[in-house]
Automatic annotation (TrEMBL):
Residues 1-26 form the signal peptide. This is Knottins-like domain-containing protein. Belongs to the DEFL family. Residues 28-73 form the Knottins-like domain.
Length: 73
């Protein structure tokens, strides 16, 4: 009886944990920030400015280190 309970619990645990990792990934769109004016040296600062522009985040890119805001398309 204990083996059946343990097996059922283990099966439930495996099924439940596998559902956490299933997700739908969308395409990420980028747009240059309108408010970030200086050289972009910190992804954190860029992301904060982009969130103020209603984007989900931002990163520093390119040779000239510009801030690009990101969001799901």
């Amino acid at each position: 009886m204990e083996n059946k309970v343990f097996a059922a619990f283990f099966l439930f645990l495996v099924l439940f944990s596998s559902q956490e990792f299933i997700g739908i990934e969308g395409r990420m769109c980028q747009s240059r920030s309108h408010h970030f004016r200086s050289i972009c040296l910190s992804n954190h600062n860029c992301a904060n400015i982009c969130r103020g522009e209603r984007f989900s985040g931002g990163r520093c890119h390119g040779l000239h280190r510009k801030c690009y805001c990101t969001r799901l398309c």
